[in-house]
Write a structure and sequence with these properties.
It is built from 17 helices and 19 strands. The chain is an alpha+beta fold. The radius of gyration is 34 Å and the shape is elongated. It starts with a helix and ends in an 8-residue tail after the last helix.
C-alpha cells in the first residue's frame, strides 16, 4: 500500500514539474531557445479576440466564374460552327448563356451532336445553350472550395499562428487572422484574384483602324497597363492595349515563382511552369513567334513582349516597376494559385490589441475571483477535506494551462470562459465523493473504509457525468468554429484532467494522512 502511494505521489510531483516547465514559454516570451526546443517550440497562442488582428467576411462571386467557364466553351463552339459554314452572328455570348439564331437555329442537329460529344456539361434547348443545373451547382461549389483552399495557402505563407478560415452558407468565407500587423497588405493579398493569363495583342491594320473610329473589334477588349508612382503608389498613367479575348494559357500550371532582379537592377517575378505548362507555353511561343504576347494579371497588362523565338524551357518573367515588397506579394499570390472566382469583401473588422488586453485582464480577474470563492466555500463547508479538494482544483488549473501550452492551442475569450467553468466543475466530483464518505461515517464505519467506499461508490456517477459533458464538448468542437472551438477545447481538457485530479490527486492525500496517522476523526 505504501509503495503504491509513493508511486502516485512521484507521478503527481513529476506532472506538476513538467506542467510548470511547459507553461513558462507561454508566460515569458524571452524564454531561452533550448527551453523551447525541449518542448518542440510549442506554446499557447492568443486568438483574434485577445491579441487583435483582422476579421473578414468575403463573398465568392460564383456567377463570374460560371461566365468565364461558359465563355471558354463558347469560343470552341463558335470555331466549330464557322467551320461548318454558319455565320458568326448566328451565335452570340450572353451573360449566363449563349444564344443561337438564323440558319444555326433552323438546323441545330449537328450542333446538338457536337455539344453532346464535346461539351457534355452544356445543354442546347430552343435558342439557348447553357450549363446543366447539376453542373452549374457543382461549378459553384468548386469555386467556393477552390477559393477557400487558395486563401488558406496564402495565409499559411503569412506565417500566422492559428488563423481561422471557414465556409459560411453557400458562397461566404469567414477569416480570422490574429496578430496581423499590416491590415491593408493582408486584405490586398487575400482578396487578390491573381488570375494570370497569356493573350495575344491585336495589332492587325483592320483592328487599329476600327479602334481609331472608336469601335472595339469583335473578339477583342481594351485592357490597360497601369504605371504607379514609386513613392505614393498611386496610378500616374494608364496605357491602353487592344487584346484578343481568347485566353491562350492561364496560370494554373505554374509550379513555382520567385523574386529576382533584372539587368536594370529592378525586381521581377520569375515563373516556372510544370511539365504540362512547359509544353503548352512552348506550343504557344512556337505558333505565335513574331507576335506580341500580353502577360495579364487581374485584367492589368504587366508586359507585352514580342515573341522573338520559341520558349522551350518553361520559364517566363513578369516585370512592372515593382518594389521588392510588391514583387514578393505577387509571387505569393501566384504561387498559392489564382482564385477560381473574384471575391468581394462584405465585412472588414480590425480588432485592436487594446480590446484584447482588456479581455485578458477581465478574464484573469474573473478566474481569480471564481477560484477564491470556490476555495473559500470548500474550506468553510468541508474543513480539511475541502482544503484537499482545493489542492486538486489548483492542480487542475495548472495541468490545463500546461496542456494548452503543449498542444499549441489558441486561447480565446470563450476559452477563458471554459477555464472559469472548469474551475466551477473542478470540485463537483469531490463534493460527490465527500457526501458518500459522510454517509459511510454516519453508519459508524471506520474512517479508512469510509474513504475507500466513498471513492468507489462515487466513481461511476462521476465517470457518467464527465463522459456526457465530454460528448457535448466534442459536438461543439466538431460543428463550431473559431471561438466556439476554443471553448470546446478548454472544456474538454478540463473535464479529462478533472477526472484525474479528483479521483487520484485527492485520494493520494487521504492515503498519506492515513499512513502517517491513525485517524480517529476526519474533518469533512
Amino acid at each position: 500500500m505504501i509503495k503504491e502511494v509513493k508511486t502516485r505521489v512521484i507521478l503527481i510531483l513529476v506532472l506538476i514539474a513538467v506542467s510548470i516547465f511547459s507553461i513558462v514559454p507561454s508566460l515569458y516570451k524571452n524564454t531561452p531557445g533550448w527551453w523551447k526546443g525541449v518542448l518542440g517550440n510549442t506554446s499557447m497562442h492568443l486568438g483574434l479576440d485577445l491579441q487583435g488582428g483582422l476579421y473578414l467576411i468575403e463573398k465568392v462571386e460564383t456567377n463570374k466564374a460560371i461566365k468565364e467557364k461558359l465563355y471558354k466553351d463558347y469560343t470552341d463552339i463558335i470555331s466549330y460552327t464557322v467551320k461548318k459554314g454558319f455565320n458568326k452572328r448566328d451565335i452570340v455570348f450572353k451573360n449566363q448563356h449563349v444564344k443561337i439564331s438564323g440558319k444555326l437555329l433552323k438546323n441545330p442537329s449537328s450542333l446538338h451532336d457536337y455539344i453532346r460529344h464535346h461539351h457534355s456539361s452544356l445543354k442546347l434547348a430552343g435558342d439557348k445553350i447553357f450549363f446543366k443545373p447539376s453542373t452549374l451547382a457543382l461549378y459553384k461549389k468548386e469555386a467556393v472550395s477552390g477559393a477557400l483552399e487558395v486563401m488558406r495557402n496564402r495565409i499559411d505563407q503569412f506565417g500566422l499562428i492559428s488563423p481561422v478560415i471557414a465556409r459560411q452558407g453557400k458562397n461566404l468565407i469567414v477569416l480570422e487572422l490574429p496578430g496581423v500587423k499590416n491590415v491593408k497588405q493582408a486584405v490586398r493579398l487575400i482578396g487578390k484574384t491573381a488570375r494570370l493569363t497569356f493573350q495575344l495583342l491585336d495589332d492587325t491594320p483592320s483592328a487599329v483602324k476600327s479602334l481609331k473610329k472608336g469601335i472595339v473589334p469583335k473578339g477583342d477588349e481594351i485592357l490597360y497597363h497601369s504605371k504607379y508612382n514609386k513613392y505614393t503608389h498611386k496610378i500616374t498613367e494608364k496605357i491602353p492595349y487592344l487584346v484578343k479575348k481568347n485566353i491562350l494559357m492561364s496560370g494554373v500550371n505554374i509550379s513555382s515563382t520567385s523574386v529576382q532582379v533584372n539587368q536594370y537592377n529592378q525586381p521581377i517575378v520569375a515563373i516556372s511552369f510544370n511539365s504540362k505548362g512547359t509544353i503548352e507555353f512552348a506550343n504557344i511561343t512556337t505558333k505565335y513567334t513574331g507576335k506580341r504576347l500580353a502577360i495579364i494579371l487581374d485584367h492589368n497588362v504587366y508586359s507585352a513582349p514580342v515573341i522573338e523565338e520559341p520558349i522551350l524551357g518553361g520559364q517566363a518573367t513578369i516585370s512592372g516597376n515593382f518594389t521588392i515588397a510588391k514583387a514578393n506579394n505577387l509571387a505569393i499570390a501566384l504561387r498559392s494559385g489564382a482564385l477560381p472566382a473574384p471575391v468581394k469583401i462584405l465585412q472588414d473588422v480590425t480588432v485592436g490589441p487594446t480590446l484584447g488586453a482588456d479581455s485578458i485582464h477581465d478574464g484573469i480577474i474573473a478566474a481569480v475571483i471564481g477560484s477564491i470563492l470556490v476555495i473559500g466555500f470548500m474550506i468553510f463547508y468541508y474543513g480539511l477535506s475541502g482544503l484537499i479538494a482545493d489542492f486538486a482544483l489548483l492542480e487542475n488549473i495548472l495541468f490545463l494551462m500546461a496542456a494548452l501550452s503543449l498542444f499549441g492551442a489558441t486561447l480565446t475569450l470563450p476559452g477563458i470562459a471554459g477555464i472559469i467553468l472548469t474551475i466551477g466543475m473542478g470540485v463537483d466530483a469531490n463534493v460527490l465523493i465527500f457526501e458518500r464518505i459522510r454517509e459511510e461515517l454516519r453508519e459508524n464505519k471506520p474512517i479508512p473504509i469510509a474513504i475507500d467506499n466513498g471513492y468507489n461508490k462515487a466513481f461511476f456517477t462521476i465517470l457518467d457525468s464527465h463522459v456526457t459533458a465530454l460528448i457535448t464538448a466534442a459536438v461543439l468542437f466538431y460543428f463550431g468554429s473559431g471561438p466556439i472551438k476554443g471553448f470546446a477545447i478548454t472544456l474538454s481538457l478540463g473535464i479529462i484532467i478533472n477526472l484525474f485530479t479528483s479521483l487520484v490527486g485527492t485520494k493520494v492525500i487521504f492515503d498519506i494522512i492515513q499512513n502517517r496517522k491513525n485517524l480517529k476523526k476526519l474533518s469533512i
